[in-house]
Specification:
By secondary structure, the chain is α/β, with parallel strands linked by helices. The protein contains six helices and 13 strands. The chain has a nine-stranded mixed sheet. Strands 6-5-7-10 form a four-stranded mixed sheet.
Length: about 200
């Protein structure tokens, strides 16, 4: 199995690759369109801000490449947000494969932003990505922006209000949490994605 991790400049790239190694997969870190198209699975990681990440994808002529992929694609954290149409973070248009707009956490009833730490993920539709039949478990989050609950939502999380913890449209999956830091639930997410 070949897995391409898109070099989008995210700070979690090393930990994503290490998590894949623990599953027996040697992923290639690349910004080369041919490598990305040829991979069996593609992961779009990201920790940082939407505008610089989209700028990097545009500079590498990867926007249309990513939009046109037919193999399974997993966006992680910011990578999930980049799958959406638009982000309030920097007012930037994103890849547009998921019909949703990323919004900043507003008043969370006194809760701190960013949302950081362990929180419960709750499946809302049966799916093959999340652990267990229920799609429920505990995962690790670090983010100030979120995808509202929408038609693509597979699972939610509550932090002063529900948001999408996992999304899917056709071959494009996204998780707001960090599977590489989410213990058994995260391992199951990556394993299930690689089996898709």
């Amino acid at each position: 199995m070949s897995v391409a991790v898109v070099d989008s400049g995210g700070a979690n790239i090393g930990s994503v690759r290490y998590a894949l190694q623990r599953l027996g997969v040697e992923a290639v870190l690349t910004s080369d369109a041919a490598d990305i198209r040829a991979a069996d699975h593609v992961i779009l990681p990201g920790v940082g801000a939407a505008a610089p990440a989209m700028g990097r994808l545009r500079e590498g002529d990867l926007v249309d490449v990513l939009r046109s992929l037919t193999q399974p694609v997993l966006g992680v954290c910011l990578g999930m947000q980049l799958l959406c149409a638009h982000s309030e973070e920097g007012g930037v248009d994103c890849l547009g494969v998921i019909d949703a707009n990323v919004q900043r956490f507003d008043d969370r009833g006194g809760l701190r932003v960013p949302h950081m730490g362990w929180n419960q993920v709750k499946g809302v539709v049966p799916n093959s990505l999340l652990a267990e039949d229920t799609g429920e478990g505990w995962a690790y989050f670090v983010h100030s922006y979120a995808v509202p609950v929408c038609a693509a939502t597979l699972a939610t999380c509550d932090y002063g209000g529900e948001f999408s913890a996992a999304i899917r449209r056709e071959n494009f999956f996204g998780v707001q949490y960090h599977p590489e830091r989410s213990a058994a639930f995260g391992v199951a997410t990556l394993r299930n994605f690689l089996a898709s």
